[in-house]
Amino acid sequence: KMPVAELTFRRAMINIADAGRLGEGEDLNDALLDFFVKLGQSLVPKGGDTEASVSYLGAIFFKQLRSAFCTSGEDGWKNVQNWGKRKAGGLFKPSYGAFAVPINEDLKDEKGQDAGNHWWLALVLNPYGGARKETTAVMCLDSMQRREKVLDPPITVGLKGSSNRYTFTVKKVEQAGFLVIVSFNAKGDGSMGPLQRPEKSRLIGDDVVCTNPELGLRINMGGGPNTAGEFEGTISFSLDGRMRTSTFELYYGEANYPPITLQFDPFALTKLQKDVSRYLGGYLAKEWEVNGPERNKRYEKQSARALVADVHQQENLNDCGVFVLENTLRSLSMRKDFLKQMSTSTPAALKKFPWPSQEEISTRKQKLKTIVGRLFAAAAEKGTGDVEKLMKDDEDLKRAVKASLTEERAGELEKWEGDLQKTLADRQADKERLESELKKKEEETQARREEEKARKEEEAREVEEKRLQGKRPPGYKRATPSRSKSRKKDEKKKKKAKPPPKKKKQRGSDDSRDQSEEESEDDRRKKKAGTGRGGKKQAKKRRDEDDSRDDSQEDEESRSPSRKPRRR
C-alpha cells in the first residue's frame, strides 16, 4: 500500500489537511465544499449529474465575480466569463431550476476589527425567469442571521418592594445566529443589600429556558449593605437551534424582578445580501446576453427579488460551512418545478420548510469525516486518489459515499410541497378576487363617465336646435347698456340739437302775424327734424317741402280777386 495525500473528483481536490477540518471545532473550507457538492451532483439526482436540478460554479465564484474593483455583476462578468461554459449545456440548461452560490463573508467586531469569516448560501431560484417574464428569487440561507433593536426609551423595571431604588434597565438587544446579546444597566442604593448577580438571569422563548449567560461588564460593582452598587455591560445567551421565535421574556437576577419582553423585528436582508442579489442579477443578465439560448430576448435583472429565509440557526461558531453544504445537497434532491415554485413562496411558507437543524448538521459532519477516511484508505489500497474510479470499481463504496451525502426525506418534501401548493392557490384566489373587485369599480366609474358624457351631449344638442329655431337658449340674458352709456348718448343729442329762435312780437298787418305763425311752425318742424330719426338730411327735406307748399299757397292767393286784406 502507498499512502495517498490527495483525493480528486472531476477537478475538485482535497488533501489530508482539508480532511482534518472535518473535526470538532473546525469548519469547512472552499476545497471541501467544491469536492462534496460535485460528488452530490453526481450521486444525489436519480439520473446522475446530467439530470442535476442545481448548477454550481464553485465556492470562490462570487469572490472572483467581485474582484478587480468591479461595481456590478455586468462589469464583473468578464472575470468569470468562462465559468458557465464549463457546465454541459451552459448555465441555462433546461434541467436547472436553481443556481447555488456559496458566500464567504468577512466579519467585523464592534471596533471594526477582523472577527473571522462566515459561510452562507445564495440560492438563485428559477435563474432563466428574467428572460421569460417570470419570478427569479435570490434566497439567502444564513445560519447566523443578525438583527438588533435599540430600545428608545429604554425599558426599566424595579425590584419588588424597593420603591425603584433597585432598577434593571435594558437599552439594546441583538441577535447573531444562536446568540442573543442584551445591553443592560443594574443599580441599587444599598438599602436592600448587594445587587443580584446578572449571570443568574434567564431568557425564555418557545417555552425553552436559556440560562448561564456570558458576561461582558464595563462596570462591575456589586455593592453591599448601605453601599451602592452598579453593573453595566452585556449578558449573552446561547439559544437552542430549534428556537425560531422573535419574542423573548428576560428575567434579571435570581428573583423578584418583573420580566421584560424583548420583541425583535423579522429578519431582514443585510447590506451584503442586497449586494449579492444585485451582483448575481447583473451577472445572469450578461451571461444570457452572451451565452443564453434565446439571446434575442432581454433578460430583466430587476425581476430577481431578494428574500431571506428564516432557517435554523447554528449553535456554535464553526459549522456554517456544513450548513451551506447541507442546504445545497438538499436542493439537489428537489425537482426543477419544485425549485421554481419556491421562487414565489412567502416568508411564512419558507419558514415551514424542513431546513437542517444543528443536530442534523452535526450528524452530517460526522458522516463526512467517516467517508473521507474510508476513501483515503481505499485510495491507498488501490494506489489512486481518483474517487470516480474507486467508486466505479467498488459498488459498496459508491453506496456508502451516497449515503453520507443524503437522507431519505421524500415524505417531508412532499408534505411541504402540498402546503406550498395550497398557499399559492389561496394567494391566487385572493389575487383574482382583488382583480375582480378592481375591475368592477373601474367598470362602474366608466359607466358614470359615459352617462355624464351623454347627458352633456344631449344638452348641447337641445341648445343648438333652439338656436336654429330662433329661440333663446335657457339662461340667456339680453345685454342692456348701462345707465352711464345712455346718459352720454342723451348729452350728445342735446348738444347736436339747436335751440329754437326767439319769437318777435309785431303788431300790424295780417302778413306779419302769418309770418310769425309760419316761423313758429317752421321752428317746430326743425326741432322735430333735429331730434328725430334721419338727422339733418331729413330736416332739410322737410324744409324744402314746406317752402314749396308756402309758394303754392301764395300763388293761389294772388290769383283769387275776392280775397281782401283784413282790417285791424
In words, what does this structure look like?
It is a single chain. The protein has 568 residues and is α+β, with helices and mostly antiparallel strands. 42% of the residues lie in helices and 20% in strands. The protein contains 15 helices and 16 strands. The longest helix has 59 residues, at 410-468.
List keywords for this structure.
five-stranded antiparallel sheet, 16 strands, 42% helix, 15 helices, disordered C terminus
Query: What portion of residues is helical?
Result: 40-55%
Helix/strand-derived class? alpha+beta
Radius of gyration: 52 Å
Number of helical elements: 15
Spans of at least 5 consecutive residues whose pLDDT stays below 50 are 503-512, 529-534, 560-568
Largest β sheet strand count, sense and barrel closure: 5 strands, mixed
- Share of residues in strands: 15-25%
**Mass-distribution shape:** flat
Strand order of the largest sheet: 3-4-5-6-16
Mean pLDDT: 83
* Terminal-residue CA separation: 185 Å
Number of strands: 16
List the topology elements.
Elements: E1 6-9, E2 12-15, H1 16-19, H2 30-43, E3 54-56, H3 61-65, H4 73-76, E4 98-108, E5 114-125, E6 136-141, E7 146-158, E8 166-176, E9 179-188, E10 202-205, E11 208-210, E12 214-221, E13 229-238, E14 247-251, E15 260-263, H5 271-291, E16 304-308, H6 320-332, H7 336-342, H8 347-351, H9 358-382, H10 387-393, H11 395-405, H12 410-468, H13 483-496, H14 510-531, H15 535-559
Parallel strand pairs: 3-4, 6-16
Antiparallel strand pairs: 1-2, 4-5, 5-6, 7-8, 8-9, 9-13, 10-11, 10-14, 12-13, 14-15
Helix pairs in contact: 2-6, 9-11, 10-11, 14-15
